[in-house]
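Hello forum,

I keep getting stuck at the same step: I have a sequence, I want structure tokens, and every attempt I make locally crashes halfway through. Rather than fight my setup again tonight, could one of you with a working pipeline run this one for me? It's a single chain of 428 residues.
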Amino acid sequence: MVRVLIVDDNDNNRLTLNLLLENEEGLEVHEAEDGHVAVEMCSKQNFDLIFMDIMMPNMNGFEATKIIKQLNKNSMIIALSALDDDDSKHKMLALGAEDYLTKPLSSELFESRVKQYIKIVALRANAKTASTNVLNPFSNAIYSRTLTFRVEDEGALAEYWDYWLNAEKNVLDLSDAVRLIYGFGLWLLKNQILFSIVVEESHDKLYMMLLNVGAIKNSVIRNILLKHFATAKYILNKEMLAFSLDKEQKSEVSKLEISDDVKKVLTKTHTNVLSAVSYVESTAISFLPKLDSLEQINDETDNAIVAFEKEPTKRAMGIVCDNFQEYADVLEQLVDFQHLGFAIQTLINFLTTLTEEQFAEDKVKKLSSMLINLLHDLNSWRENVFISQVARDIHYLDASLLSSCIQIEAIFEEKSVDTGADDEIEFF
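Reply #2:
Ran it on my machine without issues. Output:
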């Protein structure tokens, strides 16, 4: 069902549009006599298609369009006006209208346009498509469009910076990702290494990838990320550093104060210090048994690591990974700790790729020791945050846990091409 809103102060005009829409199936049509009423209606429910008159009392179409697009950016607004002038047309389109029709309406043209509007609305509602031609390592459910920056000099790199940071973008942690990619890019250019930055996205995610990053050691990249973007969700391989960034989600508006000021997008904020007591009080009671179950998992994982050290096989490592997966799954469900869950999941994915040929005795001993330390830190986190609740800051172990994941992967890291001093990347 497509929800349609007709906004016009003239009764006859609203009646005419209703009659023209009668031939279309699957429409639920509503009316508003001015922009003020339209905004109030849009604050309570979403409309897929809005026909907006421009010249109205109380609140004109310009003001109403501006506010409604902030309430729901996916609402398709079609401007209607008896004024066939470019200024009005350009202003409405700049404010978010997607088409402009001049009254009186041609019934044939209108019906043809409406069919296309409805088709676009339907496609927009099902915009998440599984693509087979995907570059990012996170998800296949992305839009078909791809944005590519081919960086051959610092001017092109500056253009990348300006595109993302010199304009309003609805992406959380965007500046951290852009700043880091820019810095790594400077180092690559300094060493005469050309590269590309590719961006893919879905409805709620943006995937930003730096390609041809292999000349920089993985350990250097990971340590810089830990130091400057500890909460990053990223995947790093020999040729690509890929970030997964969340798009901002607007909160539901229960009451709308009508004014010329635009509604600010509500972004997710984090309290710098949150005590364990306060955090547990706000955590769903139904989730706590999952945390209690980790006590048994902790003992099983400890035994699995010891067994792997004695007999370092793929099968033994698989059991270790299966046990750590329990921690990763729980952390992923806790919003404040998703970055830790992602880090452990990335570590698990890495460990499953190791071959028995890589299990040299010295590496196995070091790996086992570091896995046990990681496990003990996770158990300490569980006890101090959720059991005894003595932690003054629930994130007190974040840096240690993230660092452990990085150091474990570094045990098996192959040396990258060393074209310059790694310290030169410390540009922050």
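The domain at 141-246 is CATH 3.30.565 (Heat Shock Protein 90). If your local run keeps crashing, start a new thread with the error log.
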